[in-house]
Write a sequence for this structure.
């Protein structure tokens, strides 16, 4: 999940918890999608599992398991719903949580222990408290129940802030009205507005101390300086709030760590041209007050997932002196890749770059693959994600855009998740030094799922291990040089961590020599299966342009050896039903456009989907979302290409018949007289509530395929191979053809098409590698 969202939601949830979620290339693609999404979001849960040996398949298929509880007793509806939510949460963790030891707990006994307590709950709030108590016993980060209520405790404080703001605004408006003679609107603060005073805070000796004042910000103009300690914001005493939180939320780990950022976001930030009153201790320990008009903050609003509020990305590039450049950003997301690339172009002549990750709350893990690749001329082992079953090694390959000078990371205890992985990876590959304070130690890929009560359960699906075998969870990244911020230095205008970095760069004696190694991805155990992709709007006419009037297909009078008559009859009926053999054979190209939904380990991700097929030898699928960008999978007669906007690229020479792997191949292969060596009718079986003819087919290569045809409609509905499972549905008329608009792969990836174009002209760029910023050298 996105680390930033996790900490935002986690913090808010704490306030209300007491008051109150053989197709190897295809498998590679699915792994990368899952890889992005697990760190990418709470709302997207994605993974399939690649198996070493072919599993036993059943062509009839079964619907995805839905975790519900059948009423076993006469329970009131509200109680039944809470019981359903409990079992849903318990089983989701059982099936998807990476730690099979459950931190030494017997998970079955936990169920027995909590079930009677759930049955005694009177409200959803009591249930959510019980669920939080249950998952707290696992003692891991990224585990939280977010109730549907709107964070009641923090809302009380915010209400007080808003009331104060309204009083201030009323006074200002009254004064202005007297001068202008006009009525003025009284502004109410918007919690999502991107206006503020432009400061960063840290807790130093239990004081909320200003550690950074942005240039030309409202705070700088008002005279606030680093080292000043904020005592009150609009009459809300921060010290008193801190004491209450420590007492009331003592069971929540590391809650204090996240408070400074939340105080900025929820109290100091607000609506455009609104005012905030700040009481602070200056360098003489005198309590002073300021009324500051909020101004637009530097940065931009971005999306990190469809179910999350938009996030505010701040990215800064600066030249500190002739030799040293500086880059700072507050989260990991797709736009960071382009900005970081532009920074390296701007700073290409510098001898060293300082990358400031202090306060960086993580985000999309894929981002650091591109960033790492722009900081090394070799492959870099970023570490390993360890799932409940199997693991995935993460590797960043060197990019054409490549900074070869010195690199230093600045970190602190608010450097979280993907930011921790980034710092640890380059530190352990001897590519960078790390300066500051130990990081948060909260580095678990996590996702979320909605419970029947409307709450969200966040849970980790993997552990993370660094190149050298270190687990960051609960430990964090140990800096090469530990330097803590202190208020005295800050009051003197000194950033001791930054100054240490500048001193080391100037001395230039202690930088490590990068490790010499070239790595490849290692996959151990079960790993993710398959999905496809979506790009540019295809050119073409409306729907299909195929006008063919031919007699129906008639099977040969003599049954070929190894192919029984019943099988041939079922297949011929299907071919006739969808338009005939020649009508299908006359398709020289097609494009598909729609959406795809990928679901694994409890959650779902949505992408736009586009497919491109041009005979004889070109096929491409492109998936795209605002969060992940493009993931392109391209096949030609001579090569296979898998590429993402996050810098992952796999290009392999292959000799393949693309007609065997394109998305409609299970249909088109039925037209080829010699594709199947044998066809044996197995009988009629129940398939998801309907009868289906099942045929066992064997290819010339010896692969065994099971085909399922709906008895009533005569349409192909299932295709099961050793490494590939596809279901077809929602057939629609396109010209003279009947084609499926619903395609499901592995019960994990559901493609819903909006449009199929037949025989359009397809731009060649859809079959070529996309050039990104980091593909261009300085």
């Amino acid at each position: 999940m996105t680390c930033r969202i996790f900490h935002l939601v986690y913090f808010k949830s704490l306030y209300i918890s007491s008051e109150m979620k053989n197709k190897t290339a295809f498998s590679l693609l699915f792994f990368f999608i899952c890889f992005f999404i697990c760190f990418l979001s709470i709302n997207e849960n994605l993974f399939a599992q690649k198996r070493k040996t072919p599993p036993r398949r059943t062509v009839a298929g079964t619907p995805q398991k839905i975790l519900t509880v059948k009423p076993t007793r006469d329970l009131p509806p509200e109680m039944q719903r809470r019981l359903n939510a409990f079992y849903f949460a318990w089983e989701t963790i059982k099936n998807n949580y990476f730690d099979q030891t459950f931190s030494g707990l017997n998970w079955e006994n936990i169920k027995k222990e909590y079930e009677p307590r759930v049955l005694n709950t009177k409200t959803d709030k009591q249930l959510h408290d019980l669920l939080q108590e249950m998952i707290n016993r696992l003692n891991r980060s990224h585990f939280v129940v977010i109730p549907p209520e709107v964070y009641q405790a923090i809302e009380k404080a915010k209400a007080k802030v808003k009331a104060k703001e309204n009083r201030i605004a009323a006074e200002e408006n009254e004064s202005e009205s007297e001068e202008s003679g006009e009525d003025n609107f009284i502004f109410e603060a918007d919690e999502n507005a991107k206006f503020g005073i432009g400061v960063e805070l840290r807790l130093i000796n239990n004081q909320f101390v200003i550690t950074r004042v942005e240039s030309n910000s409202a705070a700088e103009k008002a005279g606030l300086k680093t080292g000043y300690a904020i005592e009150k914001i609009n009459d809300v005493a921060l010290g008193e709030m801190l004491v209450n939180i420590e007492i009331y939320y003592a069971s929540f780990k590391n809650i204090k760590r996240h408070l400074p950022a939340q105080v900025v976001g929820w109290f100091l930030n607000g609506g455009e041209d609104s005012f905030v009153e700040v009481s602070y201790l200056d360098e003489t320990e005198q309590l002073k007050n300021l009324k500051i008009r909020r101004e637009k903050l530097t940065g931009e609003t971005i999306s990190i997932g469809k179910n999350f509020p938009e996030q505010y990305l701040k990215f800064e590039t600066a030249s500190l002196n002739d030799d040293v450049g500086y880059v700072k950003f507050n989260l990991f997301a797709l736009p960071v890749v382009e900005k970081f690339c532009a920074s390296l172009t701007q700073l290409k002549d510098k001898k060293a770059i300082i990358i400031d990750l202090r306060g960086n709350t993580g985000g999309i893990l894929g981002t650091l693959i591109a960033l790492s690749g722009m900081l090394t001329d070799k492959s870099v082992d970023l570490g390993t994600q360890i799932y409940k079953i199997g693991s995935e090694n993460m590797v960043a390959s060197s990019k054409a855009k490549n900074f070869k000078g010195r690199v230093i990371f600045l970190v602190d205890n608010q450097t979280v998740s993907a930011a921790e992985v980034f710092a640890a990876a380059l530190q352990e590959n001897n590519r960078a030094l790390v300066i500051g304070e130990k990081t948060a130690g909260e580095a678990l890929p996590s996702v979320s799922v909605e419970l029947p009560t409307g709450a969200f359960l966040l849970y980790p699906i993997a552990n993370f291990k660094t190149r050298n075998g270190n687990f960051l969870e609960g430990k964090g990244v140990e800096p090469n040089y530990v330097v803590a911020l202190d208020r005295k230095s800050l009051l003197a205008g000194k950033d001791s961590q930054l100054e240490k970095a500048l001193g080391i760069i100037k001395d230039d004696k202690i930088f490590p020599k990068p490790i010499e190694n070239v790595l490849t991805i290692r996959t151990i155990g079960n790993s993710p299966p398959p999905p496809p992709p979506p790009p540019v709007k295809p050119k073409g006419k409306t729907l299909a342009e195929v006008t063919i009037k031919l007699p129906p297909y008639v099977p040969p009078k003599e049954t070929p050896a190894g192919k029984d008559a019943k099988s041939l009859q079922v297949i011929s009926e299907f071919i006739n039903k969808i338009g005939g053999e020649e009508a299908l054979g006359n398709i020289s190209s097609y494009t598909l456009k729609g959406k795809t939904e990928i679901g694994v380990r409890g959650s779902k991700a949505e992408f736009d989907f586009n497919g491109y097929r041009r005979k004889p030898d070109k096929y491409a699928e492109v998936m795209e979302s605002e969060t992940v960008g493009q993931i392109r999978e391209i096949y030609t007669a001579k090569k296979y290409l898998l590429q993402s906007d996050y810098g992952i690229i796999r290009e392999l020479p292959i000799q393949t018949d693309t007609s065997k792997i394109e998305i409609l191949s299970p249909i088109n292969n039925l037209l080829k007289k010699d594709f199947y060596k044998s066809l044996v009718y197995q009988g009629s079986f129940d398939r998801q509530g309907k009868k289906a003819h099942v045929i066992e087919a064997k290819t010339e290569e010896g692969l065994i395929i099971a085909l399922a045809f709906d008895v009533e409609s005569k349409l192909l509905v299932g295709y099961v191979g050793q490494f590939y499972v596809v279901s077809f549905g929602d057939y629609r008329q396109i010209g003279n053809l009947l084609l499926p608009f619903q395609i499901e792969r592995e019960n994990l990836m559901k493609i819903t098409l909006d449009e199929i174009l037949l025989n359009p002209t397809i731009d060649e760029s859809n079959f070529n590698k996309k050039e990104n910023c980091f593909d261009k050298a300085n």
